[in-house]
Amino acid sequence: MNLKTSPFAPESFPELPEVRGVRAAAGSRGFYARRGVTRDDVFLAVFEPGTACGGVFTRSLTASADVRWCRDALAAGGGRARALVANSGNSNAFTGPKGVLKNEATLKALTEALGAPREECFLAATGVIGEPLSDPNYVGAFVPDLSVKLGAPDWEALARAFMTTDTYPKGAGKVAEIGGAEVRFAGIAKGSGMIAPNMATMLSYVFTDAAIAPVLLQLALARAADETFNAITVDGDTSTSDTLMVFATGASGMDEITSEEDLRFRAFSAALKAVCRDLAMQVVKDGEGASKVAAIQVEEAATPASAKKIACEIANSPLIKTAMAAGDANWGRIVMAVGKAYEPIDAGRLAIWFDDVQVAKDGARAPDYDEAAASAVFAKPEFTIRVSVGAGSGRATVWTCDLTHGYVDINGAYRT
């Protein structure tokens, strides 16, 4: 499949900081060989003993075997991690007993190669659904090869290794001073289609050398996900493999954060959220076939949850997304989407703006409506659709992309 690079792709992969306490390696297991492609498709990350971790996973009822294992391991291991292995090319979802066997073989390889407890080893897979591997040890057999190559992470190599229909590798980093200590963050993500967050989205991992108790790390991650990965959508479809995890090695030398009341927890949470937001925006900007990106802001809703529901209805509407692609400022479609959200509104106070151009006011077309000005906004690569529904003080923002023929081309050829 030949993919056209997203118009939002950065010129180069960002320079991310080295995170103390993390070693990693990537390599090619041959998942794409049948397509005549040679590329890295597996990566292994290993963490210092005592590393804390947190994770949020898809709520899909057909979640992959890897997701189910990670949920169980996160609880059984008390939020501690020693290793992560991820592959692209096969999602290990809806593979029945064979999918479990694949995980068992991989876990056995990790415990033998690294001496790590099973429940501190995490797995991830992304790619085609419903295709069991012919050899359950296909990934496990590659673990020894990767384990002897471990070194300072090449973040770009890791980000490329789990790409599927992504047109560029996604990374984000930050160095923050927290309580007088220098704390480093590095994150990678993959995702382009089947993006409609229902906990997190696609696969994304953030690594930091902060010292923080697992329960607080989990809390910070869940809050960050809600405002970042849970606030983007490309096509309205929730993946069977969605995973967002964070690993905190504690190697920065700072004293461990053990209380939510600790001012350092707020600083840590802000830094984590910033990295997650950067990664989430890169995902929506790499939406399959996307040429435009819009922020959907809903305000004066009954509750924040109601605002988010309305914003998602707008963001996921094929009619609105195709209008975006064509540059058609058809604000009536926004009115339609608000109504079908079935959330409390005051229709007589409904107002809509495209950037700063007001197109609807007090439940009707704005008196000074300017079609040319509205169309000029929709012709831009990035813009904001703001909607006030007059029902309260709740507000929310969701980011989305347009829907072009490129999306059909990519998904019509996904398995070929």
Task: Give a quick summary of the entry.
With 416 residues, the protein is an alpha+beta fold. It has helices spanning 65-76, 96-114, 143-147, 155-161, 214-227, 263-285, 304-316, 318-326, 332-340, 371-378, 405-412, and strands at residues 22-27, 42-57, 80-88, 121-126, 170-178, 181-190, 203-208, 232-233, 243-248, 293-301, 351-354, 357-361, 364-365, 382-388, 394-401.
Word description of this protein:
- With 416 residues, the chain is of the alpha+beta class.
- The chain has two domains: 22-285, L-amino peptidase D-ALA esterase/amidase; 293-412, Ubiquitin-like (UB roll) (Roll).
- The chain is 31% helix and 25% strand.
- The protein is built from eleven helices and 15 strands.
- The chain has helices at residues 65-76, 96-114, 143-147, 155-161, 214-227, 263-285, 304-316, 318-326, 332-340, 371-378, 405-412, and strands at residues 22-27, 42-57, 80-88, 121-126, 170-178, 181-190, 203-208, 232-233, 243-248, 293-301, 351-354, 357-361, 364-365, 382-388, 394-401.
- Strands 1, 2, 3, 4, 5, 6, 7 and 9 form an eight-stranded mixed beta sheet that branches. A seven-stranded mixed beta sheet has the order 8-15-10-14-11-12-13.
- The chain is globular.
